[in-house]
Amino acid sequence: MSAVTRPGLLQMVTSNILTLIVNPIIILLNFFQMNPQHTIPVIVDNGFVLSESRAILGYLAEKYAKDSTYYPSDPMARGVVNQRLMFDIGTLYQRLLETYMVR
Question: Between the CA of residue 51 and those of 38, 45, 55, 100, what are the distances in Å?
Answer without folding.
Answer: 9, 11, 7, 29
